[in-house]
Model the fold of this input.
Amino acid sequence: MHKISIYTALMLWSVSMAWAGQLTVIVAVDGLDGSSLEEMQPYWQLGGLRTITEEGSAAAVNFDHWLYGGEESLATMLTGCNPATHGVSMNYIFSPDDRKTHPLFLNNKQMGIGTDESYSPEPLMAWTIADRFRLRNPSARVYGIGITPAATMVLGGRSANACAWMGQTNPTDSLHWVSTLYYKEGLPTAALRMNTDGSFSRIANREWTPRMEINAYNHPTDEEKNKPFAYKGQDILTSSPMANALVVELALAIQKDKQLGVSRSDMLMLQMTAVTPRTTASFIASAEQEDMYLRLNQDLGYLMEQLEKRVGKEHIRFVVMGIPRVGVDKKRLEELNLPVRTFNLDRAIALTSTFLMALYEHERWVDGGCAQAIYLNRELIAQKKLSLEQMRRQVADFLMEFEGVRFACPANEAYLHPEMFKSIHKRFAGDVVFTLQPDYQLITTGYSASGQETEIVLDALLDDRLTTPVLFWPAQSVNPLIPSTDLINYL
Done:
């Protein structure tokens, strides 16, 4: 037997490690809740979330800025900075051009692939973990796969090789994988293959019914006891286990096509969901939600099992994090004598406009509003040679008289109030910003990517101490409570 020196052995080991690949999989799950994970853990089959929770490490992430149930929380966790820096204060933005609220990531200068809707990640003003990963590893590949365009692009960052999400050619078509020409590879070949060979529609059209007898669940509603839930078709696809199965299927297909993690370091950035069609709270309150968690565990288990076979367990790293979406259960709050009040932004804008007409003259002094900001008609104010600063102050004082408003100030004074300043990027600040009392729900009108008017309910604000879970596998040293801007240091 030939003997080798310790030095030679270390050299051979270092060379082998240099050629070994590493696959990092970050899974962001809509509505994933820490207390629900703990409750469901005894019922999970082997693999998936059970393996991750038993063998890995866990923490809770807390936020020090406003949450609307959009991508502002995900962007903060993946960039390590607040909305004031990363640019995603919420999923909608006010456009002075047409005085309407539109999806933030909508970009008519880009061309969609497989869809008439055009999106790009350009609103992201800070590098994400995926962007930093590619900067450190020039040969690395990053693919974002998800359910919605906004979350998928935040996950993929601006430098992903490609991103794919579920979309339509037009509002009457079935969902399929779509993308944007912003990314160099466009729509991944594996996604196009799923669209054309029928595998997307085959998975999407599976029937979703309880996997157990309805009374075997811990939280069946009275409605479910009378008639167990049953879904089929694309109307509920994006909030169903079929959406998660499709994400897993495409992730495995891209990994196989590109041999991700085999000889180099690569990343898969995935969006999945724990939000069901009738979810009313982030915590489990129905058999439908329990079933969703059971199937999520199964899908993640299948993904982990297949990647272990292809890449090797020692070369895989999983991070699973929640995206706050739903907030608290408004019906349950009311049952506990904790009523949820409504603040209608459109009504506040109309009253503010009437107020300014009384002070000045009958003109359109207010362009509109978005989230917790009022936009004044600066062009008209300049034309009339009035003081913008004085009008901002008058509107802020007027808003302070509204029931539910906790504080209001001119936008250029937001820096004096840390929570407000961290929460708003300057593109969202408008002219006057305000905060609401914790038990108020903000409602406003916006427009979808197809131009249809829609009501926007920003209900995650009801819980101003919201946290979201993050799980690491294999285990690593982690603090039990991580500020959202520090999570990037653990990824």
In short: Residues 21-333+461-490 form a domain with the Alkaline Phosphatase, subunit A fold (CATH 3.40.720.10). Confidence is low (pLDDT under 50) at residues 1-19. Residues 287-311 form the longest helix (25 residues).
